[in-house]
Amino acid sequence: MKLLYLLPLVTSFASALWPQPSTYTSGETVLWIDGDVQVTYNGAEYKSHSYRENATSGAPTGGEIVQYAIQKTYATIFEKNFIPWKFYSRNSNFEPSNSDKKHVTALTLKQNAADPDNLVNALAGDVDESYGLSLTEEGEVTITANSSIGLVRGLTTFSQLFFKTTDDCVYTNLAPVEITDAPKFSHRGLNLDVARNFFPVKDIKRMIDAMAFNKFNRFHMHATDGQSWPLEIPALPRLASQGAYESSLTYSHGDLKELQYYAALNGIEFIIEIDMPGHTSSIWHSYPELIAAFNIQPDWSTYAAEPPSGTLKLNSSDVYNFLDTLLADLLPRAAPFSAYFHTGGDEVNKNAYTLDDTVKSNDSAILQPLMQKFVDRNHDQVRSQGLTPIVWEEMLLEWNLTLGKDVIVQTWQSDQAVADTVAKGHKALAGNYNYWYLDCGHGQWLDFVIGPSSKQYWPYNDYCQPLHNWRLMYSYDPLSGVPDENAHLVIGGEVHMWAEQTDRTNIDRNVWPRACAAAEVLWSGPKDAQGHNRSQVEASPRLSMMRERLVARGVMAEPIQMPFCLMNGTQCTLPT
Ligand SMILES: *[C@@H]1O[C@H](CO)[C@@H](O)[C@H](O)[C@H]1NC(C)=O
Ligand SMILES: *[C@@H]1O[C@H](CO)[C@@H](O)[C@H](O)[C@H]1NC(C)=O
Ligand SMILES: *[C@@H]1O[C@H](CO)[C@@H](O)[C@H](O)[C@H]1NC(C)=O
Ligand SMILES: *[C@@H]1O[C@H](CO)[C@@H](O)[C@H](O)[C@H]1NC(C)=O
Ligand SMILES: *[C@@H]1O[C@H](CO)[C@@H](O)[C@H](O)[C@H]1NC(C)=O
Ligand SMILES: *[C@@H]1O[C@H](CO)[C@@H](O)[C@H](O)[C@H]1NC(C)=O
Ligand SMILES: *[C@@H]1O[C@H](CO)[C@@H](O)[C@H](O)[C@H]1NC(C)=O
């Protein structure tokens, strides 16, 4: 151990965890672990895992969620682990000696309070995710929590204490460990747009798995948009059969259930968004009479932020009947897996209503009461299924709608939007596009005719360039500009993966490990224990280690540095 002690990177090893726990002390004692470690769960010896992998009905129980997490902890430690050579000096003998082996002998999981009834579809703050973890030098591990989800978060931390050797043994060199931990924000989400490009179920499951490993607890599926409608609605079968890009690129009733259940098993609530009234032109393929201003070409930009233009008509009983049927089908399927339903409302283009035969105007004074009625009807229906509505910020801040006090407002355009939302008494989600949009910086996806327009747009940067690197994402403070007395209304935030230029081939590297930076801001808070901005120098090797762990579990996360930087301590730091 003396030798290890002299190595430059012992400090970063000591903080091998991502996201950073609230309090954490560790030592340098090596303990090995093998598959016969005795596990006790709430007083009973734990022998075999018993949980339903796929639901035929309902959500998983707290017990199933913990049993799944135990199985996954085994898989992470023994099968999806990595050899940490990158984190030691070149040519050093970094593996602990095999002689005098001490082992982890017992893992005890203790839940000190009953789970709430709404464990997997709880409102922000209703589930206590805190946990305590202790690993003694004698190899006894205790994880305590007040809920099943708390135990899951503790097990996730536990699995990050271990490394693999070249001959496939597994050890930690951090004993003894003492941790107390709790999230700073109760809504820690990732929004995936599955409409601009389609993502197969298995890719979304891999995303959810990686999210859980980062202690995210909300998966927001931006399920439909103007370009395609992949979500099957059994009561309106033509929506997906004609609105999807191709008939196989849909999420069937069963696919959705499989995804929702998988998220719940991982301690993640699955929030569905049907964005409306804008971003709906894919409905035209099945119900053309409901859509105004469909795919105006070439002047689409007068009527929409992106082609194809098109919006649900704003004053149409046919649209209302359609929405009644749509929501009556979908909401009961959403409710077992989430407390929320997202009704969208971003980027509504007023000019589209000049071509809406039920309105024929782009005058705010005419449109605003119609929008109020449109949203009120949707929200009443959402509430009637016991769900809480979420809307994009424009509904509150641009359309000045009067929203129910229960409505969560998802901001995206600025820090000011967060401050304005909470000033109006609403709970807010943060996620400023200048920091937390993962799609930015890949350049334009529009094509420019060679001539004046190609000259004007050269070098074809996109509206939110440059690419938001992890350091920028890590510097984002969801509470920036929010007065202390309103800070409690910021329930958390989401990082966003809009998918115009992302599909299954690049989803992993477009999201990971950059989304880890947001995960840590949301779990650990934007400031360190001293109240200072979090240190990149401290975080960087820890994030690189997290990246190795993601790769080991089959997620093709990008490297953030070359091994040289990691092998050489702080030698890639720019002097002040
Ligand atoms: C059940 O779950 C497993 C593992 O998640 C998956 O591979 C399989 O396809 C699922 N089966 C069905 C019928 O959904
Ligand atoms: C559990 O609840 C108790 C009482 O509210 C609290 O003191 C404790 O911090 C919670 N968390 C853990 C991990 O025990
Ligand atoms: C909305 O539709 C109703 C019923 O067709 C009509 O009477 C009313 O004038 C319309 N409102 C506007 C603003 O066009
Ligand atoms: C409404 O339409 C008119 C005529 O097409 C246009 O000049 C005006 O800019 C539009 N107003 C808004 C708010 O877009
Ligand atoms: C909402 O209020 C703002 C500020 O008073 C105003 O500029 C805007 O036009 C209003 N929007 C609508 C749709 O009435
Ligand atoms: C801390 O981060 C904020 C952004 O969240 C930034 O405005 C501020 O300048 C940073 N402070 C220092 C000392 O770097
Ligand atoms: C990397 O760092 C170690 C420890 O400081 C040092 O011995 C070694 O020479 C460095 N290697 C290079 C290539 O700079």
Key features of this structure:
hydrolase, alpha/beta, disordered N terminus, globular, about 575 residues, 18 strands, 8-stranded mixed β-sheet, TIM Barrel, Chitobiase, domain 2, binds 2-acetamido-2-deoxy-beta-D-glucopyranose, about 15% strand, 8-stranded parallel β-sheet, 2 domains, single chain
Question: What can you see in these coordinates?
Answer:
- Residues 1-16 form the signal peptide.
- Residues 185-525 form the Glycoside hydrolase family 20 catalytic domain.
- Mean pLDDT is 95; it is low at 1-12.
- With 576 residues, the protein is of the alpha/beta class.
- It is built from 18 helices and 18 strands.
- It folds into two domains: 23-181, Chitobiase, domain 2 (2-Layer Sandwich), CATH 3.30.379.10; 187-530, Glycosidases (TIM Barrel).
- Helix 3 packs parallel to helix 4 and helix 5 runs parallel beside helix 7 (253-265).
- The strands form three sheets. Strands 1, 2, 3, 4, 5, 6, 7 and 8 form an eight-stranded mixed β-sheet that branches.
- The chain has helices spanning 2-6, 10-14, 62-79, 148-159, 201-213, 238-243, 253-265, 317-334, 364-384, 394-397, 415-423, 433-436, 452-457, 470-474, 507-511, 514-524, 536-552, 563-567; strands at residues 23-33, 38-41, 44-46, 106-111, 131-135, 140-145, 163-164, 170-181, 187-193, 218-222, 269-273, 291-292, 311-312, 340-342, 388-392, 408-410, 427-430, 490-497.
- One 2-acetamido-2-deoxy-beta-D-glucopyranose (NAG) binds at residues 350-351, 354, 362.
- One 2-acetamido-2-deoxy-beta-D-glucopyranose is lined by residues 315, 358-359, 366.
